[in-house]
Amino acid sequence: MKQLNTKWFFLVLALSALLTLGACGKKATPPPPPPPPAPPAPTASIAVNPNTIQAGQSASLTWQTSNATDVSIDGIGAVQANGSQSVSPTDSMTYHLVAKGAGGSQEATARLTVTQAPPPPPPTANVTDEDLFSQNVKDVYFDYDKADVRGDQQASIQADAQFFSQHSNMNFTVEGHCDERGSTEYNLALGDQRASAVKSALVAAGVSASRIKTISYGKEKPFCTESNEACWQQNRRGHLVYQK
Amino acid sequence: MNSFENMDGILQSDSYRNTILSYLGVLSPRRMDDPARSFLRRQPSKSHLLKIALACLCLFVSSSLFAQDWVKTGTSLGVEKVRLGVPDFKPSTADPQNTALLKTFNDTLWNDLDVSGVVELVSKSFYPLQVPGQPPEVNFMAWSAPPPNAAMLAFGNLGVTNGRLTVQGWLYDVKNIQTPQILGKQYSDAASDAAARVMAHKFADEIIVRLGGGVQGIAETQIYFVSDRTGHKEIWAMDYDGSNQHQITRMGSIALSPRVSPDGSRLAFSALTKSGWDIMMYSLEINRPVNFPHLGGTNLSPAWSSDGTKLAFSSSRSGQPDIYVSDASGGNLQRMTTGKGPDVSPVWNRKTNAQIAFVSGRTGLPQIYTMEADGTNQQRMTDQGYAVSPNWAPNGQFLLFAWIRKYGPGEPGSSDIYLMDVASKQWVQLTHDGGRNDFPSWSPDNRHIVFQSNRSGSLQLWTMLADGTKVQQLTFTGHNSQPNWSWK
Question: CA B429, CA B8: separation in Å to the nearest integer?
Fold first, then answer.
């Protein structure tokens, strides 16, 4: 019996000690506040219009986001929350938009299909001899009152002669022109000499004389009608014209 | 009477020639080797001041000399110009057409006499209040005494009856009361403005041949020229006073250098055809082109010999533009010049047909040359500058040409009309009014010159007396150039 009492004694003692110790260890905490509402998730959309282009063309890329603080598109970089931009990629492309915000992140994509342009038509199909002539043949310019081919025009003569050797089917006319100064009749004679001089130079460079006609226009058909040296130089020339 | 007129004619035309020579001598006795000019060349630093001073002096002297030239050249001329009164003709009928026709007739007659250079017209403000329309109405004293102080009086009347226009005109020597009548003429034709104009020209020429020393007047002459007023350069013609302008050719390309034949039946010119520049021939009698051979090359600037049998022109058929001579039909072609540089713009000595003047660029800038008609004895006439467009005077003595004497950077570069005495190479400048003046052509009476000038702002035709006075503009529409005065 005596042992039972001792057990109770120790139990009470232990409980008291526990209570005392517990009261000294910490005070009681207040109840926690209610938790804040969870931030909304961002939204994002992106579209490209049209969604199919040919290489070299452009399309309009448009995007909208909300609740995002950090918007970026792959390949473009950081962008405004809403916007549009013209794009002209050379290959098909997927535009990947990432909008990040407190509520998470959202992605959207738009696909732009780029088709390769059809190959240009072969150059010979549409370019006539006349076009080739006007693109390649150079006129020959003269000094005032002179009818000899000056040194700086020899390059034109040589280039023309080479062109004509590569296009042996072409015949042409050399027109002799003069500037507005000087008298009508003398200028026609001078223009005749200029045309002849260009013809002679081309013949010397290997072009057959039978392919070349000459005509003088004197000052009757000027290229330029202002009264200054730049314009006069334009008019002092042997003008090569394709002969149909 | 006939022999008297002939003698008078010789005297007067000699006086005229002397007049030209005298101003050549007095005004500008500059020869090619003039020491004064070499002095200027040696003294470049002072030359500008000297030139300005000379120019001022020349201007002053020339204006006074030119103004006096016709009335006061001392011993060589000996006579003053006749003072002629020309009161307006009076109506002889009551037809309503009279007013307009009288105005045309009176204006045309006055202008013809005024520009003739052989008379001095008495100002109308000096005329008596009563002017005559018939011989009995002439008040001799009122005309011969001052203020009109007229020696001669041209008067008459004009009227339309049943659509027919009749003009009566007289020329009176008002200081010879006993036998005053020098001329009495009557003209009649269907009434029209053109008829009134022709009658005035005919009457004016009758007066001028009597008062101008027997030299035929030019009031019925024509001027051929180039005009672009259709959009293409075509050959046109007009009366010598600018009236009655009408188109001749319809090439639709470019037609240039009209030269009428001495008999007035044909017109030679140069035109752009499918094969290039060809000499073309146009019949003024049947009003259409007639055949002329295609020569090849660039063919330019035809010129008639004064007997109408030959043409000279420039052709590059052998490679270079050279002077050729052919028959009027284009046959019997002969090359007159060879060698470097373009040769163009030939003209025959109209008096002799023994020489040809032309333009050559054989030494660089174009100069005037002469040669015998067979191509020998080629002589350079101008010593500097840019000289083109020679035209030989009917009397054979003078050349007209266009000259930019001072040529090159910084020079004014104005082209003026010059007159040169062929034998001495003395020259005198005729135009001083600015612009580019070119293509002078003599009238058949040797007294007038038609030329082209852009002095008015566009290229137009002008006439003047051979001393540079009485300058008149003839054309106002489009651009007009290369005038050629008919031979009669």
Answer: 30
B345 CA to chain A: closest CA distance, Å?
Answer: 7
What is the distance between the alpha carbons of residues A108 and A114, in angstroms, rounded to a whole number? 20
Is 3.40.50.10070 the CATH classification of the domain at B82-211? Answer: yes
Tell me the CA distances in angstroms from B2 to B5, B7, B82, B210, one per residue in order: 5, 9, 20, 11
DSSP code for B22 = H
**What CATH number labels A43-115?**
2.60.40.10
Instruction: Report residue B13: phi and psi, to 5°.
Output: -70, -30
| CATH number attached to the domain at B222-485 | 2.120.10.30
ipTM, two decimals, is 0.83
* Helix H or strand E encompassing B61: helix B44-69
Helix (H, G, I), strand (E, B) or coil at A192: helix
Q: B178 — phi, psi (to 5°)?
A: -65, -55
Specify the long-range contacts of residues A134-138, CB closer than 8 Å, at least 24 apart: A134/A242, A136/A163, A137/A163, A137/A172, A137/A240, A137/A242, A138/A240
Which B residues, 319 through 378, put their C-beta within 8 Å of a C-beta on chain A?
319-321, 342-345, 359, 361, 364-366
Q: Count Cα atoms within 13 angstroms, Cβ side, for B126.
A: 16
B41: left (phi over 0), alpha (psi -120 to 50) or beta: alpha
pTM higher than 0.90: no
Q: Which positions in chain B touch A148 (Cβ < 8 Å)?
A: none
Domain spans, chain A: 43-115, 129-243
B198 contacts chain A (CB < 8 A):
no
Which of the following CATH numbers is that of domain A129-243: 3.10.310.40, 3.30.1330.60, 3.55.40.10, 3.20.20.380? 3.30.1330.60
**Which strands form B416-421's sheet, in the order they lie side by side?**
B386-392, B398-404, B416-421, B427-429
Q: Taking CA atoms, what residue in A is nearest to B368?
A: A186
pLDDT at residue A58, rounded to an integer? 83
The per-residue pLDDT of chain B, averaged, comes to 86
Domain ranges of chain B: 2-76, 82-211, 222-485
CA–CA distance, B251 with A57 (Å, rounded to integer):
54
CB pairs under 8 A between A and B: 76
Amino acid at B226: V
Strand order in the sheet with A171-177: A140-141, A237-243, A171-177, A212-218
* B182 vs B168: CA distance, rounded Å: 14
Question: Is A196 in the B-facing interface, judged by CB distances under 8 Å?
Answer: yes
Question: In this predicted model, what pLDDT tens digit does every residue of B383-408 receive, in sequence order?
Answer: 999 999 999 999 999 999 999 998 77
pLDDT at B310: 98
User: For residue B295, what is the enclosing H or E element?
Assistant: none
CB contact under 8 A, A190 and B298: no
Residue type, B437: N
B320 CA: distance to closest CA in chain A (Å) = 7
Rounded-to-integer distance, Cα B301 and Cα B256, Å: 8
Which helix (H) or strand (E) segment holds residue B481: the answer is strand B480-485
Q: Residue B25 is inside which H or E element, if any?
A: helix B2-27
Q: What is the DSSP string of A56-87?
A: T--EEEEEEEES-SEEEETTTEE--SSEEEEE
Chain A 99-158, residues with CB within 8 Å of chain B CB atoms: 145, 147
* CA atoms of B247 and B226, how far apart (whole Å): 9
